[in-house]
Amino acid sequence: MPIVTKQMIAEFSSEFEVKDAIDKYGFVANTGGSTGKPLRVFRDKRFFWQAPYWRFYGWHVGRKLGNVGLDTFVWGMDDASIDRSKYRFSEREWVQRSVSFWPMQFYNVSPYAEFSDTVAGFVEELAKSPCAKIYAYAGGLDMLADYCIERGITFDNVAFIEVCASPLTKVIREKAEKVFGGGKIFDFYGSNEMGPMAIECQHSGPDHHLHLQNDLIHIDLVDDNGRPVDGEEVGTTIVTCFDNKVFPFVRYNHGDRTHWINKQCDCGLPFPCIAPVRGRVADYLTTIQGLHLDGVGFNEVFDFYPNAAKAFQFRQNKDGYAKFLVVPNTAYVNSIEEITLIFNKLNTDLSGKIEFTLELVNEIVYDGGKVRYIVHE
Ligand SMILES: [Zn+2]
Questions:
Q1: Closest by Cα among 82, 62, 78 to 70
Q2: Which band of pLDDT confidence, cut at 50, 70 and 90, is reported for residue 126?
Q3: DSSP string of 129-193?
Q4: Phi, psi of 189, deg, nearest 5
């Protein structure tokens, strides 16, 4: 079967939509994609996407979320995640979700805010929790670990740290273990368009393998010619999703790099093992004060305006200043208006931290074909 590329979806998005079902059950789950274009894709509301997370927590924390005694902290998200949920769900569905999540307490740390503005409050709240879970971007966890190590702060109440959005390096893992203890930090592989796909096993040992959720998705790993890879040869992830009947993903080139680990895990779970995923890049922008802001938030600036631009990139050659390069979608009537809106919002949100200048360009040339949303010149 052929492989569906992000380019195909970018060009023929509406042809993937399952008519009738999409209006009733679809919600927008746009992704920055690796084409440099925001992709307009949908997920299916009929499949409760928190369920696989609960399964992970059941494995790792040993009890399900929803326990009144279990506080949950979410790191690395901001109000945009709430906006996005509101945008995805009807008011009634939003109420249902709020009720079902009621026992948990969320503490969000914005990837847009300066770390130093928020970290003290986060650490204070974290210390109060009887049992906390942290959902972290790798860059955020790195900064949190540095902050705690410098001040001699450690925690024994954090049960589970789920790390996403960029490779969890050995350095970050070791620093985080100093603060939170060993066996608490788990690499996570998921995406906007697919939801959760794999999570590191607590029995993984030095290879840090992840269990693929192959009852929810099927993954092929292929070489550059589209042939399945053998043994531990690194391949590209081609994903087929089983829980989306509004925007079917069949043999979709997700574009991440990993390899199989052909072994029976000590945990006894039937899910196949993959190596930690390589090739996800979380970059950063530097503020005038010299602080790094995680790049993931910047990758998502077009999420609400998927038709506005054909491509975009942030370029920085000086702390506190960044060029915002955008290729407008001339076929879309509100393109310039929406780009201007995003540009103004960036300057408002990051006022006093980063000053953006907007440049409308005809194309963005990516080095070696690899898309980079943030470039330091
Ligand atoms: Zn296992």
A1: 62
A2: confident
A3: -SSEEEEEEHHHHHHHHHHHHHHT---S-EEEEEEESS---HHHHHHHHHHH-TT-EEEEEEETT
A4: -125, 115
Coil, helix or strand for 31? strand
Q: 111 C-alpha to center of ligand 1: Å?
A: 31
Across 96-112, average pLDDT = 58
> What percent of the chain shows pLDDT beyond 90?
30
Of the three residues 116, 148, 183, the one that is the final residue of a domain is 183
Q: How confident is the prediction for the chain on average, in pLDDT? A: 80
Q: Please state the pTM of the whole predicted model.
A: 0.70
Ligand 1 center–CA 353 separation, angstroms: 43
d(CA 268, ligand 1 centre) in Å: 6
Last residue of a domain, one of 151, 183, 215: 183
Does 288 share its domain with 178?
no
Question: Is position 28 within any domain?
Answer: no
Q: Distance from the CA of 265 to the center of ligand 1, in angstroms?
A: 5
| Helices 115-128 + 138-151 axis angle, to 10 | 70
Q: Is residue 86 domain-resident?
A: yes
250 lies in some domain: no
pLDDT of residue 101: 58
| Ligand 1 mean position, distance from CA 201 (Å) | 5
Write out the residue range of the structural domain in which residue 327 sits. 284-376
What is the C-alpha to C-alpha distance for residues 135 and 23, in angstroms, rounded to an integer?
31
Q: Does residue 64 belong to any structural domain of this protein?
A: yes
Q: CATH code at 371?
A: 3.30.300.30
Mean pLDDT of 215-238: 91
Q: Are residues 187 and 163 in contact, defined by beta-carbon separation less than 8 angstroms?
A: yes
pLDDT of residue 358: 97
Q: In the chain, how many domains are there? A: 2
Residue in 222, 354, 191 with CA at minimum distance from that of residue 286: 354
Please tell me the distance between residue 178's alpha carbon and the centre of ligand 1 in angstroms. 24
Amino acid at 128: K
Q: How far is the CA of 203 from the centre of ligand 1 (A)?
A: 5
Between the CA of 13 and the centroid of ligand 1 the distance, in Å, is 37
